[in-house]
């Protein structure tokens, strides 16, 4: 496991999960009229097309992960560009950090910051699961965190909110619930997602969205 299983770490993880849970209430999906549903689906298609054209983006925020018996939390910085993506996570309690780098063309992943040195593999999610014991849907997360369906993850079902934005996305066995900012523009980005599959749970609060800038990755 990337982060140690000390009592202090377990307590901190539980506290962080509780704090993230209390940061916002996920609104229930709305029952839309057929006309509203059609408009929401059209808006989602247009939104996905527009945001996928924006290949260079980044976020900084907080993440908590659990699998029913173990958990961890920390700061997350995600950098996406044409070459692939890099995810840096740091845990203030244990002063540990790691970085996952994924090549956009091949999908080949490299995980650094582990005892025993870096690990590599062709499947980023599997690499994380083998190294940490956590089920983190990292391959699809770059789409889900922006309120998009993940093209490589099969069919998806979307429930929309009154502003015609995703309230929930169900895909690849995961249920992703969204909290949005007060900005109701079509291309607004979520402030929080809560993803669940079985005992696996990933909560991410975005403190800042930005463009692709490598200068401060993992430095927060």
Automatic annotation (TrEMBL):
<dbReference type="GO" id="GO:0044874">
    <property type="term" value="P:lipoprotein localization to outer membrane"/>
</dbReference>
<comment type="similarity">
    <text>Belongs to the LolB family.</text>
</comment>
<keyword id="KW-0653">Protein transport</keyword>
<keyword id="KW-0732">Signal</keyword>
<feature type="signal peptide">
    <location>
        <begin position="1"/>
        <end position="21"/>
    </location>
</feature>
<dbReference type="InterPro" id="IPR029046">
    <property type="entry name" value="LolA/LolB/LppX"/>
</dbReference>
<dbReference type="Pfam" id="PF03550">
    <property type="entry name" value="LolB"/>
</dbReference>
<keyword id="KW-0472">Membrane</keyword>
<keyword id="KW-0449">Lipoprotein</keyword>
<comment type="function">
    <text>Plays a critical role in the incorporation of lipoproteins in the outer membrane after they are released by the LolA protein.</text>
</comment>
<dbReference type="InterPro" id="IPR004565">
    <property type="entry name" value="OM_lipoprot_LolB"/>
</dbReference>
<keyword id="KW-0564">Palmitate</keyword>
<comment type="subunit">
    <text>Monomer.</text>
</comment>
<keyword id="KW-0998">Cell outer membrane</keyword>
<dbReference type="GO" id="GO:0009279">
    <property type="term" value="C:cell outer membrane"/>
</dbReference>
<protein>
    <recommendedName>
        <fullName>Outer-membrane lipoprotein LolB</fullName>
    </recommendedName>
</protein>
<dbReference type="GO" id="GO:0015031">
    <property type="term" value="P:protein transport"/>
</dbReference>
<keyword id="KW-0143">Chaperone</keyword>
<keyword id="KW-0813">Transport</keyword>
